[in-house]
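Dear colleagues,

For the upcoming journal club I promised to circulate an example of a predicted protein-ligand complex. I picked one with calcium ion because it came up in last month's discussion. The inputs are reproduced below in full, followed by the predicted structure.
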Amino acid sequence: MERVSTKNFEIARVLEDLAFYLEMQDEIKFKIRAFRNAAKIIESLPEDVEDIYRRGEIRRVTGIGAAIAEIIGELVENGMAKVYEEFQEKYPVNIAELSTVEGLGPKRVKLLYDKLKIKNLEELERAAKEHRIRRIKTLGVKTEKNLLKGIEFAKKSRERLPLVYADQIAKYLENKLGSLGFVERVTVAGSYRRRRETVGDLDILVISQKPESVMDFFTSLEEVGLVLGKGPAKSSVVLKDGLQVDVRVFDEEIYGSALLYFTGSKEHNVKLRIVAIEKGLKLSEYGVFRDDARVAGRTEEECYGALGLSYIEPELREDMGEVEAAMNNSLPQLVQLSDIKGDFHVHSNWSDGMDSIPDLAGAAREKNYEYICVSDHVGSLKIAGALSEERLIEQMKEIDQLNNQFNDFRILKSAEVNINAEGELDLSKNLLKELDVVLAAVHSGFKASKEVITKRVIRAMESGLMHIFVHPTGRIINRRTPYEIDLAEIIEKAKESGTILEINAFPERLDLRDVQIKSAIDRGVSLAIGTDSHNRNHLNYMEYGVYQARRGWCTKKNLINTLSLSEIEKRFAV
Ligand code: DGT
Ligand code: CA
Ligand code: CA
């Protein structure tokens, strides 16, 4: 059996798989939830779970009970856990693959394995195409058709890795390579450096006088599953977890031009080359040349400068007008993580979050925030531990009490309110008015037509009772397609009604997307980043919201998270 690496996200994945297996077995909900929560917690730990375990402190992590701690111990010590191995023997299904298919949960995976021995996406597709699924009584023709659609989507999206996972792998490799005595510099370029929401592969650039030694070391790392190619200038491997990584070694004199080239995007590079030609220059990864003489190459700034351009941040290099802006010095001053003064979307243990409001407030204060919105689910839709109106009133009392203790920080009373099929907010008007910040979202009726969903949201915006429209398209990366919504119309209405649009920073949501953010900004609509935290470590996901914002050309003034508490109090009249 393949050894499980001890990186947090891999241990988290095993726990996720175990939750899935338990659900296949019809285990009690509580137990399933414990595994799923533990997975989320570990995934968002700012430290290696292995280090915590080795210090004997694993039980001190909130949400990790004795049974799960033991499994983590086995994984760290042996690279495998007994229960996991047993489940895999009994049900040798590829959970990671099958669970990316919309409409395919644990119960169905079990049914499909029991009846048709389906283990992976390929076998599922074959069974669906041969109409073997519709013959299972509880499934039928409609399910078979929906599964086929789900398979199509899963196939298209499964190759790209969400940035948050790429970050963990990239930082690990960067450290490994960077710690070698004969390596002077390591940078991960490509879409990773542009902070794209997902990456296809990693492109690592290295400065070293000993390229052969770099490649020997890199291709023999324990994490490498397959060596696709190995030479002194370039090597390519596929890691055991499926990610391709290219490493290239360059000399210091041309590191800037190499970085520029391999950061891309391809479209940005093409545009730069045209600019170079117009100036009688030639641009390549080896430098900027006039005739045969290199005039720039050591740094990116130098290369841009030789082309008559100001420096362009990697997040902007998508050929969306940034080269033209760099020519006439009108690039946006992009917002930075350090500009952020608060978080607009945080769940507490009053609903489906893990941590108490005081703990969340404490974690926010450690980040030097001035405010957070506690925005639990409310209303009649029975999702995610939604609060009744009575409970919401109680929660507001707790928040008032807590706020008495602070003079430089405020917990804003908020809630994530469902927009129902009529386009009404599913919470009484009195309470909506009592909340400081009302978040509204579409949580049901995803299958309705574009006109219907758009109209619903517009009606809610017209009510004057909602402040922020959260995760506006409902997509979940690699898992759920966005519902149909006319975003151009929503942006227009947001402008007219003063509604703020959310950039949901949860790494698998990142909703709005970069180009959508840019459209909203172009129309003068305000944005708010919310992490959608379900435990305090998730507050760290703010950085992914900021990357996404930067990719959408977001400046400080476009983003209300950069406002101070007193400015926020003015803006929301609270
Ligand atoms: P990915 O890996 O799909 O997330 O996206 P990238 O942008 O990392 O693309 P990748 O890995 O194929 O190539 C890395 C960079 O190398 C890319 O952003 C720009 C540069 N590059 C690759 N192929 C070409 C090409 O054919 N022409 C130009 N101008 N640049 C290229
Ligand atoms: Ca790449
Ligand atoms: Ca590549």
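Two points we might discuss: The first helix runs from residue 8 to 24. Residues 190, 201, 203, 246 surround calcium ion (ligand 3) (CB under 6 Å).

See you all on Thursday,
B. R.
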